[in-house]
Amino acid sequence: MTITTERTTTPACAEHDDLFQSPLLEEPALASSVELRRRQVLMTRKAESICLDCPLMVDCLYRAVAKHDVAGYCAGTTQRQRAEIRQHLGLRVDPEDFDTFAGANSGHQIDHDEVLRLRHARPNDSLESIAQRLGCSLSTVKRHLRKARRGEAVGRPAKLSSIVPTLEQVLNAYQQVVARARPSQPTRRAA
Predict the structure, then answer these.
(1) Which of 55, 48, 61 is nearest to 20 (CA)?
(2) Looking at the chain, which runs of residues are DSSP E strands?
(3) What is the radius of gyration, based on Cα positions, of the chain?
(4) Over 60: is that where the pLDDT of 31 sits?
């Protein structure tokens, strides 16, 4: 379902923001109870159906795979599926740098080891005071500490490819990753 005016087309997901912004559509967190898991499956199926019927699906899929690291359920795909599509394409899309966008830092990279060193050297300091010392946001400090707890790699890995994939390449990778289990698949629609 989309609302079409003479000037714009509103994406179907915007008309169903309560569904698409639900924490139950986030990954990898699976619902803890059987009832919540059932609701999660039903919500995912409904979101998938809305996406597949949307005339903006193909453009949305391309942008969510090749241009932006979108969070949550988007373009009939989960974050994990989009990551797998990018892997098939040999593509890396860096997440948005919201700290710089919001003016929380000047765009300089925060040294991961420095965050850990300050936290270790001053265990009683608040995370906010560490952020102030580093000239970054509180969320940046928290993100670095979470990565350290999880043992994740830090820093920005080199791009796997500097070549932007074509729409056809993205659709082919989508077919390989997602559509093999679906009866209907997005097709290229005329603009």
Answers:
(1) 48
(2) 3-4, 9-10
(3) 20
(4) no
Residue 21 has pLDDT above 60, yes or no: yes
Q: What are phi and psi of 8, to 5 degrees?
A: -140, 165
Flag whether 160 is in a domain: no
CA distance 86 to 42: 27
- pLDDT, tens digit, 9 for 90 and up, residues 156-191: 444 445 578 999 999 999 999 987 655 554 555 444
Mean pLDDT score of the chain, rounded to an integer?
A: 78
| Residue 150 confidence (pLDDT) above 60 | yes
Domain count, the chain: 2
The pLDDT value recorded for residue 108 is 60
Query: Given a cut of 50, is residue 136 above it in pLDDT?
Result: yes
Residues 78 and 44 in one domain: yes
- Which amino acid is it at 19? L
Closest CA to 88 of 1, 6, 169: 169
Does a structural domain hold residue 101? no
Question: Tokens 């990018």 label which residue?
Answer: 86
Question: Is the residue at 161 inside a domain?
Answer: no
Encode burial over 92-114: b for 16+ CB neighbours within 10 A, e otherwise: bbeeeeebeeeebbeeeebebee
Domain boundaries, position 143 = 110-150
Contact 17, 66 (CB under 8 A): no
